[in-house]
Structures
1.
Amino acid sequence: MESKQSLTDLRDALRRFAAERRWEVFHTPKNLAMAMIVEAAELVEHFQWLTPEQSMALPAEVHAEVRDEIADTFIYLLRMADVLEIDLIDAARDKMVKNALKYPALPADLR
Amino acid sequence: MESKQSLTDLRDALRRFAAERRWEVFHTPKNLAMAMIVEAAELVEHFQWLTPEQSMALPAEVHAEVRDEIADTFIYLLRMADVLEIDLIDAARDKMVKNALKYPALPADLR
Amino acid sequence: MESKQSLTDLRDALRRFAAERRWEVFHTPKNLAMAMIVEAAELVEHFQWLTPEQSMALPAEVHAEVRDEIADTFIYLLRMADVLEIDLIDAARDKMVKNALKYPALPADLR
Amino acid sequence: MESKQSLTDLRDALRRFAAERRWEVFHTPKNLAMAMIVEAAELVEHFQWLTPEQSMALPAEVHAEVRDEIADTFIYLLRMADVLEIDLIDAARDKMVKNALKYPALPADLR
């Protein structure tokens, strides 16, 4: 996550990727939401039979597969945000403010 | 998405958010995968009865709700990646290379 | 699950329910698949922060909510099967035969 | 869906299937909810790039695959209901009563 513009660069790369395959016509928000949840489920699948403890100590091979599924979910989420002209970072920051009101922090001496 | 470090900053803010509520114990990868797909489904819900055309021209109020759901999905995805020590941007870049091999671009004159 | 024809009766009740609200036009397989996974996620939501043990000993109030979510998921699944002219029981039986080949039973002395 | 007891028979067959593989230990409601949504997503995947019209006219091969995914989703849903001692048919009937109050039928002359 080092470089400036990295998320913008990735968004632009995804635009080109879609254009070079003539996929734009399929990339309605409705379809992208479906594709995104399908990838999210492939991520869930890796954890369905694991204990909580096992899920925290994945074998290297499983970790690599999970990394790919996280990437695919992220790719569709970023692509969907782009099609809807939503900035992921701004949206997340704004939502965190709402979430903080909904779930107040514990007093420091109780943490 | 303008500033350097914005994704890293967001990741760190999510770490603090969890710590200030003593939520770390709940944030196993297994549980975060579940929470993430639940948010993904709340996003899907907004589109389930829409035509493809309607999904591309959301009323402002629905667009604002969709923005919040995209944000929540992204927040859990980023939090999950952090717990698993996965860099979202690097993972996405690596996966795009694989995806490009799996789905070759059309020749330029056919696009 | 006592009465003969109970699943067929339920399927027919769902047909009438849709007709009485003029919902048939929305009930494409694509849309029903989306509606079904949204209900499935509302079911998942009840379990996302629970330990495996807690998920096996739900408080009565949570159990009642889970029952409603299971019902909604089942309703959309049955409705989707109907629209696609698929018999749920027959489909499940056929799939169990395939699953048994894929995952052979343990020898009796190892169970 | 013809025979009396067909759903009960299926439930019992799923119990035996789990026992013969020593899978009961994995079949907590939490894990079954995850497995169920994963199958639901495999169903969604078949429809993600289709137009509404295409989703209503599936090629025979796709229809057969969709039938299998509907079956797997149903199998996990029925298994989950069994573990939670919930009767699928009763739960669906009760929920339809609630749904009818929430979404009243149109007057007969407007249908």
2.
Amino acid sequence: MRALDLTASSPDITRAICDIPSVSDHEGALADAIERAIAPLPHLEVHRDGDTIVARTDAGHAQRVVIAGHIDTVPINGNVPTRDVTIDGEPYIWGRGTVDMKAGVAVQLKLAAELVDPAVDITWMWYDHEEVAAEHSGLTRLAASRPDLFAGDFAILGEPTAGLVEGGCNGTLRAIVRTHGVRAHSARSWIGENAIHAAAPVLARLAEYRPRTISVEGLEYREGLNAVAISGGVAGNVIPDLCEVQVNFRFAPSRSEEEAVAHVRGVFEGFEVEIADLAGGARPGLDAPLAQRFLQAVGGAPRPKYGWTDVARFSRLGVPAVNYGPGDPLLAHHDEERVPVAQIEEVERGLRAWLTAR
Amino acid sequence: MRALDLTASSPDITRAICDIPSVSDHEGALADAIERAIAPLPHLEVHRDGDTIVARTDAGHAQRVVIAGHIDTVPINGNVPTRDVTIDGEPYIWGRGTVDMKAGVAVQLKLAAELVDPAVDITWMWYDHEEVAAEHSGLTRLAASRPDLFAGDFAILGEPTAGLVEGGCNGTLRAIVRTHGVRAHSARSWIGENAIHAAAPVLARLAEYRPRTISVEGLEYREGLNAVAISGGVAGNVIPDLCEVQVNFRFAPSRSEEEAVAHVRGVFEGFEVEIADLAGGARPGLDAPLAQRFLQAVGGAPRPKYGWTDVARFSRLGVPAVNYGPGDPLLAHHDEERVPVAQIEEVERGLRAWLTAR
């Protein structure tokens, strides 16, 4: 593997790190490449934990910001290696991870290498296992082993926001809704009870569900309740005795985790519901002074973030956090995932201006 | 291994051959034991094809009957070796294969050895790979290499019928009903279309479906339409773009295969339906003169067979066929599979009376 060249342009670094596949649970090669490029830099103190890499300046500034990005992606679907494409005259980098969120990581890597004397101290974090259950996240692991590394006055997550500032985030809950039956040979189906047929009302309630949009501190958070998986079946000639529907509820930051659980249990009243995964949202948090200065530096009005991101994790630790990164979030996880080259450069300029302003 | 003793009682032969495991694809040891016991008998002409053994008398009788049984079982689940058990004072042989269908094979082996001068010519068939996809069946192989061996005026399959005569069998069809959607990140579900939600009407139609009972030549065939598997889902945070429901339609022998397909397509009108597996049923065939004599010899009124069995194969070749064997079909494949000793003896008496009546 060629070494990462952090003197290249941030779009070129984007292509380089997208072409090192790093689907969740397979981040090792990319983490190694990042560590090899960052570890020799004398202005950074580097700590590795699994496939998470933390790099800190320690110049004794009064304020510290944390800037973080995950290095894993959802599964590749014929969209690696990356390509340069032009749509309506605009150049893009196309491929898995370009939006979510290696273009953001590329900007961070470049600035980490170049800003040897920033105006504030910076803690850079590149972490693994963001696209899977929160318990597997590199940040969960790091928060347990080195909570001190999360200290800061403000945090920025480089998740895709099309170069705008997105405040807070929705919460997310995954639950398993189960139906039960009685096995029997399908030639004598009347002896058994079909658990898959029993799931018909579960799917009907999901299909009929009308999600709400909730205003929090002036930003509009749009919710959603969806089946993300379904499974059931024993063999081609057996009446199944179990069907499991996995649902995902994305909820506004005004709902507590407990309220979100109660809502989902209410929707599926009469069915067995097991909560599999739960992460509360984060309120926008844009009233902090560093946040205000950041908004002025990068320009533009803040918007709500729909996706759950690790800003919620910082928010819970008392560190105000926003999302700011290149790429249209609507194209995250999309097979046609692609990021405008100009947006990568714009985010680089925005972050650089803020981090160097004295 | 001790040689099979075909002078033992049919219950003792049942225990002996159940204690030689013969899960599908591992029938060799049992086929060898059968061949060693049968091949030396001077009144039988023996042909072996893989683990299928055919033994024929050839005394020049005007009529020939085919009597067949499969020697494989579904997987063992702690229920081999067999045990003698007594329930409510009635003696049973307990263990894998006792019902489906080694007790039936035991009776056949004993009669094959003892009936040196039957009233009709007999073709005995003991075959492998019945409990798996039809393409692997020993009978499929034999029908290709030696179709002449299937010639006969009437056929009896020793599948478990609790010692009653079960005529014909239902057909079976498996189909995949598919719904499609558009993938998106579940945080912005309104961008995508949820294929699992789109399957709600598929499950609703299954749950509402009222199967018919259809009278064919005086026997009542009960049908059934069931989901036997469902799957869908990409990841916990992705709106799924595909959901597949596998359905199994068990249909009366009065419906042709084409009519069964049309019925299933009609039920799921508006959805993509792929036929995965199809085997027509068999009419009872009890109006044949040999069948009438058989019914008189064994006594009792015939019933319909619900499960698909190899009688359909003989029926398609123009050989009327019925199921007649010891064991409760509801206990087939059951971990508590067990056969009443009295039923084994009763089936032996019934077959012997019919095959020796002049």
